[in-house]
Fold each of these.
Amino acid sequence: MPPLRLSCLVAGLVILLTACAPQTLEISGPRPVVESDTFMVAAANPLAAEAGRDMLDRGGSAVDAAIATQMVLGLVEPQSSGIGGGAFLLHYDGETREVAAFDGRETAPAEATPGLFLDEDSEPMDFWETVVGGRAVGAPGLLRMLELAHEDHGRLPWAELFEPAIELARDGFPVSARLHALIAQDRFLDTYPAARKTFYTPQGEPLPLGHVLINADYADTLDAVAQGGADAFYQGALAEEIAGTVRRAEGAPGLLSVEDIAGYSAKRREALCNPYRGYLVCGMPPPTSGGVAVLQILGILDFFDLHPQAASFEEIVHLFAEANRLAFADRDVFLADADFVEVPVETLIDRDYLAERAMLIDPNLAMSAAEPGLPRVAAGMPVQQHGANTSHLSIVDGEGNAVSMTSSIEQAFGSRLMVGGFLLNNQLTDFSFEPEIDGRAVANRVEPGKRPRSSMSPTIVLDSDGRFVLAIGSPGGSRIIAFTASRILAVLDMGLDVQQAIQMPNVANRGTVTELEQGTDAAGFARALRRRGHEVSVTEMTSGLHGVMALPDGTLHGGADPRREGVAVGERE
Ligand code: GLU
């Protein structure tokens, strides 16, 4: 397999990708972009994408396909997302050209206090001690959100959307290389009996590659939800089992109650849309920081010419890193659940404000540290850990409706607690562990009923007439923001197709260090960037981007990240 060459991608306008000499990045690409005249599903696993295609084949909508795809993801990619977790979904209506936003983020239990992650000496707890077990389990939001999106944009009957996942859960599916590797390397997955039974052989070995995993409990759960709607999950026996498992988790009991689960509600929110290079880029509002940060980065870069003929790749990486640094300075201080704290969203993405921020960038030299651009009302919060988790899917249906959805149980395998064949999230670790810093409350501190700040950045780009252009997003913790913003830039500024853009090496800056993806040509820029004053780290950066793009003639292009096992699929030949 010939791996990527960044320089080739940068010169993508003039040089064919395939003409580039092989290098060392261990990914399964490059791949050609997938084309379709009718519809497209791009998702993190072939079986899941296939379930989505099935629904589109039957005349289903993008939301129908997203639900079917997600239900299979919860089975075949259980480490990443599922009904025990949460998600954000952006929907584009092909007829009205409106973008709608759905919030299925987990909520903190009513009994949670700002000191949830402090030890008896009022010091922040060790991260891993909080991940495993019940402490960080929030009320799951995925199913309520999908139900809401289906109410607004579904076409096929709810129950039908669960058929592929139920069948696959009963018949079994082959454990993928990625799932096998993640089981094998996980230090905590065998902590509790249900996950031990599901992911290991009776001899205690990680399930081998290709092992046919049957998950009858998951099939039963989905059967109940297919028949009874999301209520079958949020009320009754299943909710009691979830709360009981969390509250009785050995060594790390949590606070989630049946009332928290029954009281969960998904929210319709207003998408945030800002112009960029004459396009309109739409993202998700808080509680994710993703939408605001992506729009800030692009809004700042809109004041620079990034066309490959105007800027070298080194210059583009420098400017991109600086724009990221500025966005993270604001994000750390202001972004949190806007239902609980005031988040100056409008100001943060205002063009005049972003012009001021852009003026702080020296085109040649890195700034030493970025400060937030507005008076601080709260203390900041350090960047958190991230794992090999979370999933993004992008779908366009036959009617031109689109879905861009990122879904997560937080760390890989979440809390490691399992109920009804699915894993429970540890999403509450996305809150600040410290409720107060230097006497100032942290905006993203734990509060009962509050949603933890996210970085998930499902995005939809429209043209100046409001026609759909691109749906994209990624997993990757707080690097999601850079992964997503850089691909929008690659498509709109560099003219790459969506697959080339996704394959492009990753670059990020989350406030201090400029990170370059190990094993790619990006690493070759380390010296030059250091000369410009960047503190540089060359590191593994496993994005999982999935995107669908519409060309002006209506042809759809689908792209999947070769760093993971996803695919893009159009109509059957
Ligand atoms: N929990 C993270 C978030 O909501 C996503 C996890 C990840 O991708 O690492 O931002």
Amino acid sequence: MLEAVERQIQHYITDLGDPDARMLYRRLPHGKRLRARLILTIAGTGLPAVKTAAIVEMIHAASLLHDDVLDEAYVRRGRPSINAAFDNKTAIMFGDVLYSKGFHELVDIDRDVARIISDAVVRLSLGERQDIVLAERFNADRTAYLNMIDQKTAALIQASAEAAAHLVGKDRRIYRTYGRNLGLAFQMIDDLLDVTEDAATLGKPAMHDFAEGKTTLPYIYLHEALKGADKQRLAALHGRPLQPEDEAWIRTEMDRHHAIERSRDEAKELIEEAIALMADAGETSLEAIARSMIERSF
Ligand code: FPP
Ligand code: MG
């Protein structure tokens, strides 16, 4: 069912009439297309749903092109990122092309869909900015982390579900909550995998978030649990490349203080809530999508 979305994106790219954009698009690995999958599962495969899914995936791809520049990340989905294979200017400008073409097409779909998606992109940008601001020092504030991922990641997934529900006249509120929970859990799991998995599995360096200054949920819980010199040691390691012995120490302390378990439980709870909502709405496929998110990591 995703082939129609791939064809639609291809059509939008071809429509640009620009060989350079076509070449760059071919270099982009697709990813899991979670947002498109959600939209088609909720709204079916009619043209407005396919177009919305294609546009959301183009906006998402644009945000990752920019994110890899901001994060100085040189690997994306196991392949050199566009900023690594070309340079920052190419990644930023191709991101702008995808993003603006997406918006140009969005205005013709439906006024409410355009409002829902464009509002989410504002929130996504505010969230990315917060991610950068929070990384300036060790962030021990769980609420600040949750607000940031709510904007950075959950906003577009929530908007995908809500826009899809709107297209077929389903109850927007239920799908919105489902999408938000999924988005929050998705980012929590992504952040957890950065700690628990190795570089080969991740397709990018392991424990990179903390070196970048990002204190994700397990670091926040570990910081809360540590006392005295250990607490200071953790805070002092923030924001610079980790030595192997520091990496090992962090992992051991996270195990000892159940920081991974606590974070995982929090993500699981959000997923369970999302599953329950969809069970009530009789949406079995959406239950399965939520469940697959837990399986992805644990
Ligand atoms: C990945 O986070 C980043 C996002 C989910 C959002 C990025 C948003 C922007 C750059 C602003 C919006 C810009 C446009 C053009 C729409 P991460 O770094 O935690 O995840 P990662 O491990 O996959 O890199
Ligand atoms: Mg990143």
Amino acid sequence: MSNPVISIIAPIYNEEGNIALLYERITAVMEQTGETWEFIMVNDGSSDNSPALMEELAARASHVKTIHFARNFGHQIAVTAGIDHAAGDAVILIDADLQDPPELIHELIERWRAGYQVVYAVRRERKGETFFKRFSAKAFYRIINRMTEIDIPLDTGDFRLMDRQVVDVLKKMPEHNRFIRGMTSWIGFKQTGVYYERDPRHWGETKYPISKMLRFGLDAITSFSYFPLQIMIYVSLGLGFLAIILIPVVAVLRITQGPDFFGGQATTIVLLLLMSSFQLFFLFLMGQYVARIYDEVRRRPMYIVASTTGFNENNKTSDVRSDSAESILEPEA
Ligand code: UDP
Ligand code: MG
């Protein structure tokens, strides 16, 4: 069987109520486009009935392929595994919860055929999401854009099409803390956006609680910006400048007012608290970078595959992904 033209990748983390409809809607669109395609579902350590449903689909249709992780590795890593295994000339990333309407795939492919290497979907509206989620997402992308050198298009998620050229570069980027939408912007090539209205989740609840969102945000910032490290120098200079001004002021007050001019020690305590707070905050930020450096230098595999279905020998890549692990993998046929 020759390689499919389009690879569609969906990360699956407890999505049992979405898989059937997702496949149905994708199939309907792909039949309209007339392209050959494969559908790769990456089970990111689901604990519900999703794996069984995935296998059922894979047994029915040979263009449905599955990857099962040994445990939950996170959304961005699941998508990465899908990209590593994809054989298509173009790869499309889509969420499994139907917040990204599969019907838009048609337009993504059209733009790709018109010569763009990256076609990302821009949300015009977010239906059925809380005010907090909408607000935090909006603020997040605006902050990221100010802080980083790359321009990540506003209000985009991972719903996008990428040409094989871009995918091959992405596969060579080994970082563990991944922010795929930033990485694709960084890669460049001809990019364009198409607009859509983001639907509410078809079934189930968001798998991104606040803690995961914060971590994801820090990954995004630390992968693309040193700004948090650089502001330290400004705060430090500002405080130093303040101290230089205050020294003669205090000296003059001491001479003219006597030793009790400030009352007790309240000022000292407040200043101490303020200083410690600044220092700890910046230590925390530095720690965020250091922890990520540690993640990278350990060179552990990025994910661990427990099993796969449907891949033929040509595009069945490694079961682990790590640049250091290359030597222990079988050479490519
Ligand atoms: N997901 C995943 N691993 C995780 C969390 C999420 O594979 O640890 C998948 C999830 O199944 C879905 C996609 O990533 O297909 C987006 O997740 P979700 O819809 O919960 O995020 P939100 O849209 O709320 O930001
Ligand atoms: Mg969602």
